[in-house]
Amino acid sequence: MKKTQYKNCFEGNEKWYVDKMKLINEKIETYDCRHMSNTKWRKLFLVILKNINIVKQCEIVEFVFDNCGIHWINDMKLTINIDIIDEYLFEDYISERLAGGHNPISYREINYIEFRKYYHKDVSRPSPPHNKYDTVNAEQDLDEIKRIISATGKFYWEETEQYLRILGYS
Predict the structure, then answer these.
(1) Domain-embedded: residue 29
(2) Residues 81, 165, 110, 149: is their CA dihedral positive or negative?
(3) What does DSSP say about strands 105-106 and 157-159: parallel, antiparallel, or unpaired?
(4) Residue 57 near residue 119 (C-beta atoms within 8 A)
(5) Cα 138–42–20 angle (5° rounding)?
(6) What are the residues whose beta carbons fall under 8 Å from the beta carbon of 154, sequence distance 6 or more?
(7) Tens of pLDDT along 116-128?
(8) Does residue 1 lie in a domain region?
């Protein structure tokens, strides 16, 4: 069965889902303004995925804390097959296969997404062993990213010379 709604991802563990939604709702109440709807998040992620030649790196920052008080930060997987996007983006959540984490992410729990000007990129080694990766420094054009995303709608931006953020809440 295709899990098109976030709550369906937790069949057999409904208590965990209920507890997580309680934390999400409590956190949302601490903000004055919600800038993104589920539809707007999905539209944004579609634009990102259709422009992976420009958007080379994107982090999804959740506001639900783990037991250690650390924010979950997921480095979005931008190498997916856009032809099967319905396997990654759903009505109210993003698949863990796209988010790069261990669990799906409800759009409601995204504090912000961040595009860094300079980021680390894993590249496969040209010589054996081929299953090993090296990390190299890479750069992406933040002005171009903002241009293509802004063409699709109005977003609440936070920006410096080093990063762009699209805020879910403020």
Answers:
(1) yes
(2) negative
(3) unpaired
(4) yes
(5) 95
(6) none
(7) 999 877 665 555 6
(8) no
13 belongs to a structural domain: yes
Provide the number of structural domains found in the chain: 1
Residue span of the structural domain in which 132 resides: 6-167
Instruction: Convert the pLDDT of each residue in 126-168 to its tens digit.
Output: 556 555 566 678 899 999 999 999 999 999 999 999 999 999 9
Q: How far apart are CA 66 and CA 148, in angstroms?
A: 34
Q: Place 65 in a pLDDT band, splitting at 50, 70 and 90.
A: low
Q: Up-side HSE of residue 155: CA atoms within 13 Å toward CB?
A: 27
H or E segment and range at residue 14 = helix 14-28
Q: What is the DSSP string of 48-113?
A: HHHTTTT----EEEEEEE-TTS-EEEEE----S-GGGGGGTB-SSEE-HHHHTSSS-EEGGGEEEE
> How far is Cα 71 from Cα 50, in angstroms, rounded to an integer?
27
Q: What is the DSSP letter of 52?
A: T
How many CB atoms within 10 Å of residue 64?
A: 18
